[in-house]
Design brief:
Elements (H helix, E strand, L loop, with lengths): L2 H5 L9 H21 L5 H8 L3 H7 L3 H26 L3 H18 L4 H4 L8 H23 L9 H12 L10 H10 L6
Amino acid sequence: MSGSERGAGRAPRPKRADARRNEEVLLDSAAAVFVASGVEAPIRDIAAEAGVGTATIYRHFPTRADLIVAVYRHQVEALAETGPSLLATSATPYAALAQWIDLFVDFVVTKQGLASVLQSDDPCFDPLHSYFVERLVPVCTELLDAAADAGEIHSGMDAYELMRGVGGLCAGAGTHHRYDARRLVKILVAGLRRSP
């Protein structure tokens, strides 16, 4: 039996802390370059942003699609983990919700360049929308429920519907200099508040 056959049933070993940090630097750098220059930006630009050689990028992410998927998942995970943290540290559940929605706006606006890639024929991108929904809708639901339980917003708000609404408002970002998606989303979130 070969080593690969023996290891086939085992879970992959977790990455060392320094390896995880290095990968996070690569993903954060790639995200910054994607926002500035689009997902077709040269790999050398991402490597320069991360302070590594291009070979390091290719060692971690052999194809551009691998890198795009990893950046997307990394940012979804960061946003998912932020929700409970905001609930624990914010003055009120509504304040936590408003802060999280603000971060969600950043996420959506920076993903506009990914839209065409995510809708491409490459099957590696197919699971990303489901992943996004499965990870983020429960977080938004938790924030909405906490704010409703505290009497700060109307109860019965649907997280998916709210997130779609925010996404719709963000779709116009960058198309006109007078269009301020963040301001419009703040108005939407303020509209959730219960009247005193």
